[in-house]
């Protein structure tokens, strides 16, 4: 395939003697050919792949059959019923939804098709997913129990979209911070759970982890299990195990560091400062109130230790002025600056 589809490279035909591999490759080729960037070279390579093995031809017929079925359901309105069934927790309704979409047999015989990160899986998610939006305001933190049993905490001024489909449990963190404690589904219907940001995808491997996202980077700390990171642009991968954390953007993943346990204390309404710099701690406090809080450069290096109530930033600021040689300067209605006494 040409350079614009390098991230979708299909393995050579010599390695495609299993049905699952052939289906995976057929699904990826389908995603390539339906994209706006597909050109004549892509179609020529697809034809070579198709003619190389009988298993490829059988797999392609299955993918086309699925597409035809989904298109027909979309025109008739049945996807709404399928989406509703997918949101119900019982095994019976999930099996019914799988059969409704004509994918039950495919899902059972080729689970590996949806266990990998591929354009096909995202295409199915977008086509037959049910989306739920969650948001918390400044100064709040809330726990949400998701329909399949996972628990998601959203921190102050955060927004996430949760999508359920045949292929994935996807959480898109649009801004702010979340902590997710994943639940395992049934062995028959165990969809991967992923968290997406602008910078990449994090795939949970039976785990509890926190993610914080801003326009520059994504931060992740893992407390149980493990998480695989895949960056959005460069395709760099990194396994983050329990007790580790790192930051990444769309191009690169920074070095792993020991996880800061204090990063999950906000789910209990506490902001922990374990020998943190004053400017770093105040930047976090500022997220919990309207208006900006800044720190004068000559006191930014001061260190903070203690546990503070996340829902009372005035009390936090008062405590800082009592324990450190700093005072508050107010600007306008909401902005505050900490300066040396």
TrEMBL record:
Protein name, entry field: FecR domain-containing protein
Domain FecR protein: 134-227
Classification via InterPro entries: FecR (IPR006860), FecR_N (IPR032623), Ferrdict_sens_TM (IPR012373)
Domain FecR N-terminal: 24-65
PANTHER family associated with the record: PERIPLASMIC SIGNAL SENSOR AND SIGMA FACTOR ACTIVATOR FECR-RELATED (PTHR30273), PROTEIN FECR (PTHR30273:SF2)
Pfam families: DUF4880, FecR
Organism annotation: Methylophilus luteus
